[in-house]
TrEMBL record:
UniProt superkingdom: Eukaryota
Biased composition (Basic and acidic residues): 32-61
Positions of region (Disordered): 32-72
Native organism: Venturia inaequalis (Apple scab fungus)
Positions with biased composition (Basic residues): 62-72
Name of the protein: Uncharacterized protein
């Protein structure tokens, strides 16, 4: 009977450990998701900036294209 008790306690310990590890894994996963979201935010900002620059360049190019190239 004592051996069975010991095994039960051992099983409970292992279970508790497993739960701890699982919780830790979830924490890490949440952290990773946060970092990913942050990265996406930064990338979106960069993309927006690049788009703005491109739009400005396109505008300039259009204006220059409208002007006659030959100056008299």
């Amino acid at each position: 009977a004592k051996k069975a008790e010991a095994k039960k306690t051992e099983a409970k310990k292992v279970e508790a450990e497993a739960k701890k590890v699982e919780a830790e894994a979830k924490k890490v996963e949440a952290e990773a998701k946060k970092v990913e979201a942050e990265t996406k935010k930064v990338e979106t900002k960069k993309a927006k900036k690049a788009d703005t620059k491109k739009a400005k360049a396109d505008k300039k190019a259009k204006i220059l294209a409208k002007k006659p190239l030959t100056k008299k």
